[in-house]
Specification:
Blueprint: H1 8-18, H2 23-26, H3 48-60, E1 69-71, H4 84-89, H5 107-124, E2 128-129, H6 136-151, E3 156-160, H7 165-175, E4 181-185, E5 204-210, H8 221-230, E6 234-239, E7 258-262, E8 278-282, E9 293-299, E10 305-312, H9 332-370, E11 374-375, E12 384-388, H10 394-402, E13 405-407, E14 409-410, E15 421-425, H11 432-443
Parallel strand pairs: 1-13, 3-4, 3-5, 5-6, 6-7
Antiparallel strand pairs: 2-8, 7-8, 9-10, 11-12, 12-15, 14-15
Helix pairs in contact: 5-9, 6-7, 9-11, 10-11
């Protein structure tokens, strides 16, 4: 397999065209002390088949391989991806990094983004959704900044400690160099965010909750939205598992003003943590403060349907000081993948899949409770839950790993004091036999 297709004749032709005689002259502008003059220590070249064997050998050294069953979610979820998704997405019409600045040349791309926006708006229960953000964490940070822009005079936002720790870290990174302050709201004993400290406050531009939250607990978004609106704040609902809205009432229908989160579950493989897809939507009245880009449908002079970038309030398109975001790239390929996934399953398919995830998670949770483990929180959960073991779970976890099962995420490194508490996640990819094996090992 050739990795550098240029022949010596090709290279000489290019040198002649740009007026240089060799590579040394080509790189003459690079100072000597910046160049590497030694010989690269590279292995001998391999054939395609030898290289495949070499990569397989490296894969076998991994602690967790694609053959393992992973019972950990925490922001990245194992879901079956219909074969139609990669088959259609790999077509050259879709698999492109091209940014649709010229609508007359990018009608197909724009239509795909428009369809994604429509499906996302329906799933999240919002009036309008943009054509994606970088990932769920940056989408949350952008949502809070959007809340400050809308409120204008307020300098503080509140964030639940039950939001994914990585999301909160990104929010801190965004806000640390600014004049704005982030206030944390504690988590109650039932696993839901304690909103009692909001009473009487008038300085919060926005309050952010995650549902289902990092513990898998479903927040009471309707009550939360009412409490936040009572103090004249914006309710920001974020998520890391959008599949939950196939079963649960959508955040927008619960009263959230801005909805944002991670769309990896919608047909995108976990891939060692990336890439992700930042989903973002809001009420119509706030659309001009929304970051990212928005594709709209219109008609041309002949009355034919067409698509354009209706809003694109990024610094690449307007004056820097007027930009609502410095996000320079949407996740176009991931966006179209998610649109294909949602269209493939439809509303009925999403409901059935969400119910299957819920039922399997409840099966394992009940089985672990029967062994003597205690469920840490009493509020309803979706496909993740936290259990506390009376004895050290480490030996059982090691035995399960040897059997190809990665069971539970230890929480004490994220939440000090959560000793012997583990976050479990069950999706449709886990078989009943696997769940029963976990329960048997815990009983030993």
């Amino acid at each position: 397999m050739r990795y550098l297709p240029h022949t010596d004749a090709d290279i000489k032709t290019m040198f002649k065209a740009i007026g240089v005689k060799d590579f040394e002259e080509l790189f003459r502008t690079v100072p000597e002390h910046c160049r590497y003059s030694g010989t690269m220590n590279l292995p001998e070249p391999k054939t395609e088949w030898e290289l495949n064997d070499h990569m397989s050998a490296i894969r076998s050294l991994m602690t967790v391989t694609p053959d393992h069953t992973v019972l950990i979610g925490a922001g990245r979820y194992q879901h079956h991806i219909p074969s139609t998704i990669p088959a259609v997405m790999s077509r050259s019409e879709f698999l492109t990094a091209y940014t649709p600045y010229q609508p007359e040349m990018a009608q197909g791309t724009l239509q795909g983004l428009f369809e994604y926006q429509t499906l996302t708006a329906r799933l999240l229960g919002v009036d309008v959704a943009n054509a994606s953000m970088y990932d769920g964490a940056s989408a949350l940070a952008e949502a809070l900044l959007m809340g400050i822009r809308i409120s204008r005079k307020k300098k503080r936002v509140a964030v639940s400690t039950a939001i994914h720790p990585h999301y909160r870290a990104v929010v801190d990174t965004y806000f640390r160099p600014t004049e704005f302050e982030v206030v944390e709201l504690p988590c109650g004993e039932n696993g839901r965010t304690d909103l009692s400290s909001l009473k009487g406050r008038d300085d919060l531009a926005a309050v952010a909750l995650q549902s289902p939250n990092f513990f898998g607990v479903v927040e009471d978004l309707e009550a939360a939205a009412a409490a936040i609106h009572d103090i004249d704040g914006l309710c920001v609902a974020c998520f890391s598992e959008p599949l939950a809205f196939g079963l649960l009432k959508s955040p927008g229908a619960c009263g959230a003003d801005i909805v944002c989160g991670e769309g990896q579950s919608l047909g995108i493989a976990p891939s060692f943590g990336g890439p992700g897809l930042g989903m973002f939507g809001c009420r119509q009245q706030f659309v001009r403060n929304m970051p990212g880009r928005l594709v709209g449908e219109t008609t041309d002079l002949d009355g034919k349907r067409g698509y354009v970038l209706t809003l694109s309030t990024r610094e690449q398109h307007i004056r820097r000081e007027k930009a609502t975001s410095n996000i320079c790239s949407n996740q176009g390929i991931c966006t179209l993948t998610a649109a294909m996934y949602m269209a493939s399953l439809g509303g009925t398919g999403l409901r059935k899949l969400a119910r299957l995830n819920y039922d399997k998670a409840e099966y394992l949770r009940q089985g672990l409770q029967d062994t003597g483990a205690a469920c840490s929180f009493s509020a309803p959960t979706f496909n993740e839950f936290v259990v506390e073991f009376g004895d050290d779970f480490g030996p059982a976890r090691k035995r399960l790993l040897e059997q190809g099962i990665v069971a539970g995420l230890e929480l004490r490194k994220f939440y000090p004091g959560f000793e012997n508490r583990y976050l479990f996640c069950v999706t449709e990819t886990a078989s009943k036999e696997t769940l029963d094996r976990v329960i048997r090992e815990v009983k030993k």
